[in-house]
Amino acid sequence: MNAQYAGLAERLDKALLTKTAMPQITLAHPELPLAGAYEIQSLLVHRRLQRGERRIGMKMGLTSRAKMLQVGVNEMSWGRLTDAMLLEEGGVLARDAYIHPRLEPELAFLIGKPLSGKVTAAQALSAVDGVAPAMELVDSRYLDFKFTLNDVVADNSSAAGLVIGPWCSPTQDLSNLGVVLEVNGMVIETASTAAILGHPVRALVAAARLAAEAGETLHPGDIVMSGGLTAAHSISPGETVRATLQNLGFVSINVN
Ligand code: OOG
Ligand code: MG
Fold it and tell me: Which pTM was predicted?
């Protein structure tokens, strides 16, 4: 089974490197269990680490109803972040470097103390050094951006990039902050941080639990992405995309 998982991880990696979408792996492997999909993800990310990329944290996926509805998957997923995914705030993003990239507003957490296992919201928050307005770039390696939960998990939850705004104090009330997503100055999506499981800290609580289940820990300096607050926006050259989170500021990127 492991050789088969390694082969599937290699195919996903090739799709990423060649920017060529591939068929969903569950079409050929409908019996693939969720644990197997996470095993493929781990092998896929391991290939990136072997190329010299560095692990920088964890992304939560499908933590809001807007995201679940957009992709038709109703369960949370998680993925691994590497330094190669970091995009410059206010910088330029090449549309051509991806297959069918989408941007989505998220809340980023900066971990200050080791966090892993079953924790309360208060314990999770006390391990946080900062929170920032952020955007995630998702780019499914599957044709037409179509996948099941197990497909998207194997594909590292579509992780492709992240852009982080100013780090702010985590001591403020994060439960219901306004979120605005703009493209070239036009508002295309609005939300509240409550869209993430009722309170965005719950995404961090889940991240700590899921990290532990995978035998991992969130380390000081790690970034944890909350999951998209709104549906993601399919990007085109010439667009400036900006996400504003109430009290925290904004983050933007220019697409060319
Ligand atoms: C799946 C990954 C989900 C999020 O923030 O919900 C995700 C996708 O939309 O491609 O990153
Ligand atoms: Mg996301």
Answer: 0.98
